[in-house]
Design a protein that fits this description.
With 1490 residues, the chain is mainly β. It contains twelve helices and 98 strands. Helix 3 crosses helix 6.
């Protein structure tokens, strides 16, 4: 059987997705099971006896006397079951260990506990003696099938008990291990704010437990917050210290200890109190969403009423999953109290929102903002911002749409949404979700549900196969732990991204909450700790009640019931049994582990079969009676997928949205909502309009393209799935719907006489999608402060926004209201005006201008228009003043736009700040002065809207001048309104208007200076799209010239006719036009005579580049004259001429001939660069030239003064460069150098004259290089004095040398001398004195410039040099006068026995040295045998009378005086006469050796 694709292709989602601990546990259990199967049969029987005895000891039931039973009764005996005591505070939950050995032990402990609950201490077979009490009950005869089944159950039970016993033996191998235990538990504390608190506990256990601290089940990280927490663990004592407690530290703190034997936890609470004093400063800082002292309280205490205005509102917003987005409103409140902030509330689909990790709320004091930190589809909906203050509230709403993020696998479905946890119990919870709107193009086959324990990051898949139903029961939870869940959708292509995680849910039975001991309240993060009362043993629980099937699908059936009333005070557990319809056999569903919750999901049922269910309770006292069985239920989906919705009707809303209405799905159960899809007509590509199901029968689809036609369809959603699509709606074009206009506003009095008034007002902000056709004015009298009935002032609508109301009563007080009308009808009336008294105006100044409006709004300017005042005063109005200020600026901030009055009823306000909102007002002026101020205009923001285009001028090929304006915002019903100087253009006008689509053109019939003015165009049904173009006298003159050029066009030239020389002396005449068509023509004229293409002239025209050219191989004398190119392209013409006469022609002809000769020269070997010289860094002269077109047989010969000096035969030069090196150049090297290149193709030569001035320049350069090569001056001390020197590469006489001392030239004497030795230039100073201190300079003059090398001989440098000079001087004196032997002694003396030896040597030394003679390093004393003499202090003699062989040996003379000692050695060899021959040979060898 092959695996499903979602397990085969997605390995991380198959069974390997389970945790490592669970895999190890299953593996360990399998190994034990195999081991048990291999055991022998006789061991089984003995083990059974041991298990029975063991079970008897372990059973908590009271012992009863044994009763006699027959063998048949024994075989048919019913096995009873005993459940151990379960206490919440003694739970041991294994944690995750660090090493593999610990994980294996942990897995083994899991298997042991599971088997323990199912067999050993959980469900134990009682010995036969303990069931005697059943004999009192009525005996029922059992069928053979029943007895066989019970016998098989007993065998299976005994086998599990044997496994448990063997496993316990294995666990007892190391009895030193024991689980953690709290010896001292942390106690709860109540402290004041800003105090420190320390929680202590003591823990035992082996291996040493690891201890962790949690705040509301969130780990406490002291490393991340060292300023707040400090955790210490010493010698089993553990502590958590919290610094400067604040109100947020009020919480429940848990300390957990864990090792390989298990995990235990204990709890303590911390309550932080606050002093009752003045208002906390933090509560009045901007940024808080709500505050304790609200507007309601302040207004109630002080009788203040607040006016709230939402100024800047957020609009419909679009985001994408994973993005960050903010929405907000700017709120203006009057009066503004510094320390009181409003209560800001945010709602989604009518539900009040609270700050969480997904959304942050901020109030800056002026702006309320809601920020989505990580958008998900759950965030989609209608958002409402409400500002609460007395006497009510102000709110604004708009929809937020969230689009799906891109799938990780192309074609995979999008993520599910709205994951919720329902019906949570001790070990069970139902997870529900909503299906996504996009399935990726393939039907969704099901969903995977994942869970993660709060505080960890490890996700575990709950179902191995996808479940199609949008609810799934998750079992196997650990009581008291908190979990979060997520869901992933699956189709045939792949798996979606995970949904947003659910809120944390605690595994706890709700029915047990009343029995829990009260715990201190604290912020809750999803973890609930169960602490049950001490159990009372011995009461068998009663029957569960109200058993019912709460949910049934083809994958599972969910049962629920109520716990029994009789159960004692201990925990109760349950066994669920099922029975197939038509059978009396009840089969236990949860055979291994009883469930703790009164909810259970039964899986692995056969689809289509009928089942009944019942439940039994159990505790330590035994198993109770079964509940009443449920009615038979057929396994299958009980909830059907809803039917497709009915007729879909779209209707217009705005230019980007459409309202969709539909009929609800019939007979739909548990309907979640609807998905709406849209498609452009003909595209058949359906896109979701909402990614979160909406309820109701009406929805507004936003984000549509204006002017496009769409079809719509709807699908219904419930937990069973998504319905088929409804029928497609009729196509509808997206454009704003027509509705009655909004009310006019800002009613003002423009003129007042005895019995009439002239009123003005502003047009509605919303005109209903069409033009306003007129206005209706109503009035009423105010008598005694009480208003009367409204009366109509006009029956026919007025088109102007000013109207005179006749037949009023003088001095009567009136109120007025205005209604606007369009094709859709009459809109709502405006707010009543303020009370106005009808009395005649007698002021001399004008009344207020009215109807201020804007056009051409840009980022730094805008144009204002207004109407003249109705009341002009006692003289005519001749000008206007315009004032401006920022919208939120005080009244004192008004500034004048124009310093001088303007006679126009328009003005352009420049110098505005981009993005700033402004308001304007206008004042009229006459001879009496400045009149009343108009009402302030509506606020207008200085900004250039995206897509704005400016008007431009166009001149066509026929010279017709027109102004063109394009508007992308123009709709089908938009009109382009042209004006001159912002007044309608009257007929007959000098322009003709042509409009097509979104482009309009004003064509001038005959433009003249009378048409000077500002031409503007405004587009109706847009957001103020408009532009203008100013035609002044200069611009009109420019356009008229441009029109003439278009009527009589000239081919524009990039360059005029020019000439250039090519290789071989060819001549090229050329010009370049801006552009030429393929049909263009060219005429070539020379001296008024047309020339054509032929042997002498070669013509060419390139229409792509616009280049026209003519070539001539050679310029002859007859070619002197004028050349002209005449161009014609259609009706456009042009020409260009070039005059070549006189010196201009001769120079060009000469240069052409030179180029011709050069071309011929370069056909053979030739010089690219002629002979030149350079001086190398080594101060040698290098002659070089660069050649080209060289072959091996080309000869290169060097000559000097016409004498051959070198032949280059190998041509081993690089880059074609030939060189001749002259080292240590002298005057003999002056002369004329020549290089000749020659082969059978031709000959070329290059001459370089190095004579006279040229050679002098060469020598100067050599001297310069020598001077540059000079090293820095150095000083050398000698026995005579100082020696200053510098080295050069080499020296020549032309280099002038001077020595300076203290910037003065040195006079040479016997004591101070200079000279040159080889490459060394030196200066000697004998017997230096302090006068010789100072700066020395060596000046080298190369004939042009001087080069200097300096040395500062003073201070320490002088002292060191002088000390060295003194040392060398004394050493020289000592060397001269020391004692020495200057000569006269031989190295070896050979003498015959009995003869006399006389040696004399010269001695030197001052004072006269002392002389000693030694033999074999022993001093000789003069006697008759040895005669020693030293005469005149110079001569020392040594005589031996009658030598004998004893006188042979090494002799030395040592001379010594105060300057030194020297020794001279010689050897004396005495021989006998018979040894004469031997001695001679010896002397011969000695001589050869010398």
């Amino acid at each position: 059987m092959s695996l499903p694709f979602y397990q085969k292709h997605h390995q991380h989602y198959d069974r390997a997705y389970r945790s490592t601990d669970l895999q190890l546990a299953v593996k360990e259990y399998s190994l034990e099971e195999k081991h048990q199967k291999s055991s022998s049969s006789h061991k089984k029987s003995s083990a059974l006896q041991v298990v029975e005895e063991s079970s008897l000891k372990l059973s908590p039931r009271a012992k009863r006397p044994k009763k006699f039973q027959s063998s048949e009764a024994k075989e048919n005996e019913l096995d009873d079951y005993v459940v151990p005591i379960f206490r919440g505070r003694h739970q041991h939950i294994t944690g995750i260990t660090d090493t593999e050995e610990e994980r294996i032990k942990e897995s083994a402990a899991y298997v042991a506990r599971r088997n323990l609950m199912a067999t050993g201490q959980g469900i134990s077979a009682l010995p036969k003696s303990s069931v005697g009490y059943v004999q009192d009950e009525e005996y029922e005869k059992k069928s053979r099938n029943t007895m066989i089944r019970e016998s098989a159950d007993r065998i299976s039970l005994r086998k599990k008990m044997k496994e448990t016993e063997d496993f316990h033996k294995k666990l007892n191998e190391d009895r030193l291990l024991h689980a953690p235990e709290f010896v001292i538990k942390p106690r709860s504390h109540t402290v004041w704010e800003n105090q420190n608190v320390k929680l202590h506990c003591t823990v035992t256990g082996w291996p040493e437990p690891r201890v962790a601290w949690y705040k509301n089940n969130v780990p406490v990280d002291d490393q991340a917050h060292p300023e707040k927490y400090k955790i210490e663990s010493r010698y089993g004592v553990h502590s958590l210290e919290i610094y400067k407690c604040d109100f947020d530290d009020t919480a429940q703190y848990r300390v957990s200890a864990m090792n390989v034997k298990g995990e235990v936890s204990t709890y303590s609470s911390l309550v932080v109190k606050r002093y009752k004093g003045e208002l906390d400063e933090r509560t009045i800082q901007p940024g808080t969403v709500s505050i304790p002292f609200s507007y309601d309280r302040v207004s109630a205490d002080y009788g203040i009423q607040f006016e709230i205005h939402v100024v800047e509102r957020f609009s419909v917003a679009f985001g994408r999953e994973g993005e960050t987005m903010s929405i907000g409103c700017t709120v203006a409140i009057h009066p503004s109290l510094k320390h009181i902030q409003p209560e800001i509330e945010w709602y989604r689909d009518g539900v009040l929102l609270q700050p969480c990790k997904w959304m942050k709320m901020h109030w800056s004091g002026e702006r309320a903002t809601l920020t989505f930190t990580h958008l998900n589809k759950e965030d989609e909906g209608l958002y409402t911002m409400r500002v609460v203050a007395r006497p009510g509230y102000e709110q604004h709403s708009a929809y937020v749409f969230v689009r799906d993020a891109d799938s990780e696998v192309a074609g995979a479905p999008t993520a599910p949404l709205d994951v919720e946890c329902l019906d949570a119990n001790k070990d069970y919870v139902i997870v529900s979700w909503k299906q996504p709107a996009v399935d990726g193009g393939s039907p969704i086959v099901g969903y995977f549900v994942d869970r993660c324990e709060v505080g960890t990051t490890q996700w575990t898949q709950c179902n191995d196969t996808p479940v199609k139903f949008a609810r799934f029961p998750v079992t196997g939870l650990i009581e008291g732990r908190s979990y979060i869940f997520r869901v992933r959708a699956v189709n045939k292509v792949g798996i979606s991204r995970p949904s947003r995680v659910s809120e944390p849910v605690a595994a706890l039975d709700p029915s047990d909450r009343a029995r829990l001991k009260g715990l201190p309240s604290a912020p809750w993060t999803g973890q609930i700790i169960v602490t049950e009362e001490e159990p009372a043993e011995g009461i068998v629980p009663g029957q569960p009640t109200e058993l019912a099937v709460t949910e049934a699908t083809k994958n599972y059936v969910v049962l629920s019931w109520k716990p029994p009333g009789q159960r004692g005070h201990e925990g109760v557990m349950y066994y669920v049994e099922k029975c197939t319809m038509g059978s009396d056999t009840w089969q236990r569903v949860n055979t291994e582990i009883p469930v703790k919750s009164p909810r259970f999901a039964v899986f692995d049922l056969a689809e289509g079969k009928s089942y009944s269910f019942r439940v039994r309770c159990c505790n330590s006292a035994g198993i109770g009676e079964p509940s009443e069985a449920t009615d038979a239920i057929v396994v299958g989906d009980k909830l059907d997928i809803p039917k497709a919705p009915g007729h879909v009707v779209p209707s217009r809303n705005t230019d980007t949205s459409v309202v969709i209405n539909w009929e609800e799905s019939r007979d739909a159960k548990e309907l979640v909502g609807y998905y709406i899809e849209a498609s452009l007509v003909g595209a058949n590509k359906w896109e979701p309009c909402n990614n979160k199901p909406v309820k109701g029968k009406r929805f507004t689809c936003h984000g549509l393209l204006t002017g496009q036609k769409y079809n719509f369809r709807v699908r219904a959603v419930n937990a069973a799935g998504i319905s088929d699509c409804s029928q497609e709606s009729e196509a509808i074009e997206v454009k704003a719907a027509i509705a009655p206009p909004a009310p006019p506003y800002d009613i003002t009095v423009l003129e007042c006489v005895k019995d009439s008034m002239v009123l003005g007002w502003k047009q509605p902000k919303f005109q209903g999608g069409t033009d306003v056709t007129g206005y209706y004015v109503n009035f009423r009298e105010i008598i005694g402060g009480k208003p009367g009935k409204w009366q109509e002032a006009n029956i026919k609508p007025v088109s102007e926004r000013a109207y005179r109301i006749q037949n009023l009563k003088e001095n009567m007080i009136y109120q007025f209201e205005v209604q606007a009308a369009n094709m859709a009808g009459v809109g709502q009336p405006s707010k009543p005006s303020h009370c106005i008294k009808c009395e005649e105006w007698t002021i001399a100044v004008p009344g207020p201008p009215y109807d201020i409006r804007f056009t051409e709004v840009r980022k730094n300017s805008m144009v204002l228009l207004w109407n003249a005042p109705v009341y002009s005063g006692r003289s005519a109005v001749f000008g206007y003043y315009v004032d401006v200020k920022e919208t939120n600026a005080p009244e004192e901030a008004w500034e004048s736009v124009n310093e001088k009055s303007t006679a126009n009823r328009y003005i352009k306000a420049s110098g505005l700040k981009e993005g700033v909102s402004y308001v304007f007002r206008v004042r009229a002026v006459n001879m009496a002065g400045v009149g009343k101020v108009s009402d302030s205009s509506d606020p207008m923001i200085a900004e250039t809207r995206p897509g704005t285009k400016e008007m431009y001028v166009d001149v066509d090929d026929d010279g017709v001048i027109s102004l063109v304006y394009e508007c992308a915002e123009a709709g089908p019903g938009s009109k382009f309104v042209w004006s001159k100087n912002y007044e309608d253009i009257t007929d007959p006008s000098p322009v003709t208007i042509e409009t097509k689509g979104g482009k309009t053109r004003a064509v001038f019939k005959d433009l003249s200076l009378e048409d000077v003015g500002i031409y503007s165009c405004a587009v109706s049904d847009t957001d103020g799209a408009s532009s203008s173009y100013t035609l002044d006298e200069d611009e009109i003159k420019r356009l008229l010239q441009l029109s003439y050029d278009h009527k009589f066009p000239i081919i524009p030239l990039k360059s005029e006719l020019a000439v250039e020389l090519l290789e071989k002396g060819r001549v090229r005449f050329w010009l370049q036009a801006e552009s030429l068509s393929p049909k263009s023509q060219v005429k070539y004229v020379f001296n008024d005579r047309e020339i054509t293409h032929g042997e002498k002239y070669k013509m060419n025209k390139d229409t792509k580049t616009g280049i026209v050219e003519m070539f001539m191989d050679r310029l002859e004398d007859e070619d002197e004259g004028t050349f002209t190119f005449q161009l014609q392209d259609g009706k456009a013409t042009n020409q260009s001429s070039l005059v070549l006469i006189g010196d201009v022609f001769k120079n060009l002809q000469k240069e052409a001939e030179f180029q011709r000769q050069e071309w011929f020269r370069k056909q053979g070997p030739h010089f690219v660069e002629y002979l030149s010289w350079e001086v190398t860094p080594e101060c040698n002269v290098l002659l070089k030239c660069k050649v080209a077109n060289i072959r091996k047989d080309t000869s290169i010969v060097w000559y000097k003064d016409e004498r051959e000096i070198m032949v280059d035969e190998k041509h081993d030069f690089k880059d074609g460069v030939c060189t001749l090196l002259i080292t240590e150049v002298t005057k003999k090297d002056a002369g004329v150098y020549e290089v000749i290149l020659k082969d059978d193709r031709g000959k070329d030569k290059s001459i370089l004259k190095l004579t006279d001035e040229a050679f002098k320049n060469l020598i100067n350069e050599v001297c310069r290089m020598i001077a540059l090569s000079a090293t820095e001056l150095k000083i050398q001390s000698t026995e005579e004095g100082f020696r200053l020197y510098s080295f050069v590469n080499y020296y020549m006489e032309d280099l002038k040398i001077n020595w300076l001392h203290k910037e003065s030239k040195i006079s040479y004497t016997d004591r101070v001398k200079s000279g040159i030795t080889g490459e060394q230039i030196w200066l000697k100073i004998k017997e230096p004195t302090d006068k010789d201190k100072g700066k020395y300079t060596l000046e080298l003059f190369d004939g042009i410039t001087g080069h200097k090398r300096t040395l500062d001989l003073s201070g320490q440098a002088y002292d060191d040099a002088y000390a060295e000079f003194q040392r060398l001087k004394q050493a020289a004196i000592a060397e001269k006068n020391r004692a020495r032997v200057t000569g006269g002694l031989p190295d070896v003396v050979t003498i015959q026995e009995y003869k006399s030896l006389n040696l004399t040597c010269n001695i030197w030394g001052d004072p006269v040295p002392e002389v000693k003679w030694l033999k074999n390093e022993r001093e000789l004393v003069a006697d008759d045998h040895f005669i020693l003499k030293f005469e005149a202090g110079k001569y020392a003699s040594f005589t031996i009378n009658k030598v004998s062989t004893a006188d042979s040996g090494k002799y030395s003379i040592r001379v010594k005086n105060k300057y030194g000692t020297e020794t001279g050695d010689f050897t004396v060899s005495v021989f006998k006469p018979e040894e004469e021959e031997t001695v001679a040979q010896t002397e011969q060898k000695v001589g050869e050796t010398k």
